[in-house]
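Our preliminary data section would be incomplete without showing what the modeling component actually yields. Below, a chain of 210 amino acids is followed by its predicted structure, encoded as tokens that our downstream tools consume directly.
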Amino acid sequence: MKNKLKWIILDVWGVLYKYTNFIESLLMPFLHHKGNNISKQFVYKNYFQASIGKVSSKELWNYFGFQGEFPQIEEDYLSTVECFDEEFLEIVDSLKNNYSLAILSNDVWEWSRQLLEKFDLIKYFDHILISGDIGLRKPERKIYLHLLQKLDCKGEECVFIDDRLNNLKTAADLGIKTIRFIRKDKKTPFCSEFEVSSFKELECVIDRFY
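Predicted structure:
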């Protein structure tokens, strides 16, 4: 017998957006194109601080060497992001007919919000939780507990879709059902309950098993 599923929680990067590591796929090439050759380690270090709300996106661009160019530099960067998986639009109405939808994502709050607006996605989600907004990141246990409290539900009433196994493992430890969204197969010691490689597969798994 199926358990009552109430919430579908989606990651953004690697799920809604096709790139898993946008820093190396998008941000670093953008910075180099602008003539900025700062190291990847420096970018990661400062991005991490912004992704937990320790610095604003404006301060982050200043650290990257673009003092006085905000907000235009941010608009220029975000305009290069064209990786939304439009197959999501083919199933979202069907999902919303039966479940509530939420986002749980590690990102700079300002960037995440602007991209969700750019792709006109906010209207589909009943709750959006971004790491930069609350100072916590996946796979920290506290961010999942915070989300469950906000959704007013139990772990077993949710299914979480993410591309990273460490994020899924923490969710599973809290009783949340898990589905790994993986566009490229990788052997790993921990496996989520199901693995899918497309939104159509995701819809089939949810319909059949939940």
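The two ends are 9 Å apart (CA to CA). The domain at 7-18+83-209 is CATH 3.40.50.1000 (Rossmann fold). Preliminary results of this kind motivate Aim 1 of the renewal.
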